[in-house]
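Private note to self, pasted from the team thread so I don't lose it. Backbone tokens:
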């Protein structure tokens, strides 16, 4: 943890996006757990990867993003966005692909078909950083932008829910081994110049949104998260939304952020990013009242465009959602984004949604000066 949002970006109401963005159709590379350094010495891979990264960075800057990401270019394409967790699972030391995916989503027909083809990770040895190479991927992208650059990755507590095997007799030991592997990689990111690190979807909040989750399990998972970011001198973000497998709500409904805000005060996180556009900001008053009651020292990010629909939000709609958040959050402590990644949308639609974020943030800033 380090400082405030204003220490890493110079404008209030910082415009950004969750992390993954629609990539060019001509980008056909696959990484599939390979050593990234070995891929970058292969001419065709290097040219295509770097050319696609230049495009993604330029598009973000053109759209008015104050904070950029690598667009999730390192995630392999997979049904329902499976490349997002697979990026970590396929690269962890001590983990091999195999087994049957645990039931962590409801058995609706469309999600059952997706999850039925997913192969989780089986822990066969001590978990370690393996080929995670967070810093290598960050360096490859950071060379193409002068904007603040945020590195995003699935939360270790959610990865833990996708692992099988009995190598660790105590599942808590497995969780903390995973957290320590993340800590190693996060520190390498900071050494590489990364100032903002984001994890996606803290597992207890998913579990608690639609049913009881034990208090002691909250505490253990928060302790593990804190282990992952211990001594990591970056602005730490925690993104949490209601999922986007095949652009579906992962649990069939939008839940409450109250359990997350009620428990997260002791977590070493600087900014919590929540979904808001899917409900047109109508639940912000309730959600942010819970934030203000339980953890007002954490800064806030809100989604102002919906990643599950193709209709592009107008600048006025985005600005109106921002205004609802500003009733609770000071502008210098607020970031605005999309509810989740935009990779499943048509590429032109995704870009115009990105531009709606940038233009809406500019309008909201202009309104502050009136």
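Design output:
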């Amino acid at each position: 943890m380090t400082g405030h949002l204003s220490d890493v970006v110079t404008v209030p109401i910082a415009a950004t996006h969750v992390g993954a963005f629609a990539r060019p159709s001509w980008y056909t590379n696959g990484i599939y757990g390979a050593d990234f350094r070995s891929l970058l010495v292969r001419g065709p891979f290097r040219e295509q990867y770097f050319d696609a990264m230049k495009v993604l960075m330029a598009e973000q800057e053109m759209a008015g993003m104050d904070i950029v990401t690598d667009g999730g270019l390192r995630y392999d394409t997979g049904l329902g966005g499976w490349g997002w967790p697979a990026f970590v699972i396929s690269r962890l030391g001590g983990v091999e692909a195999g087994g049957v995916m645990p039931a962590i989503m409801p058995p609706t027909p469309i999600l059952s078909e997706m999850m039925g083809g997913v192969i989780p990770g089986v822990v066969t040895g001590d978990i370690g950083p393996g080929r995670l190479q967070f810093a290598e991927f960050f360096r490859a992208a950071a060379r193409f932008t002068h904007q603040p650059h945020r590195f995003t990755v699935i939360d270790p507590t959610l990865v833990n829910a996708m692992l099988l095997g009995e190598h660790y007799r105590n599942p808590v030991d497995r969780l903390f081994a995973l957290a320590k592997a993340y800590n190693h990689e996060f520190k390498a990111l900071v050494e590489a110049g990364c100032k903002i690190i984001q994890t996606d979807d803290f597992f207890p909040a998913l579990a608690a949104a639609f049913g009881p989750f034990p208090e002691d399990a909250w505490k253990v998972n928060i302790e593990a998260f804190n282990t992952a970011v211990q001594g990591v001198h970056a602005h730490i973000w925690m993104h949490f939304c209601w999922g986007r497998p095949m652009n579906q709500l992962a649990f069939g409904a939008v839940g409450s952020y109250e359990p997350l805000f009620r428990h997260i005060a002791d977590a070493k996180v600087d900014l919590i990013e929540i979904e808001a556009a899917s409900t047109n900001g109508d639940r912000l008053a309730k959600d942010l009242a819970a934030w203000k009651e339980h953890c007002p020292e954490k800064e806030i990010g809100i989604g102002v465009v919906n990643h599950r629909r193709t209709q592009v939000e107008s600048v006025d709609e985005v600005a109106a959602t921002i205004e609802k958040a500003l009733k609770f959050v000071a502008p210098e402590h607020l970031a605005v984004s999309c509810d989740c990644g935009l990779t499943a949308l048509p590429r032109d639609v995704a870009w115009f949604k990105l531009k709606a974020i940038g233009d809406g943030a500019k309008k909201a800033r202009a309104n502050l000066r009136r």
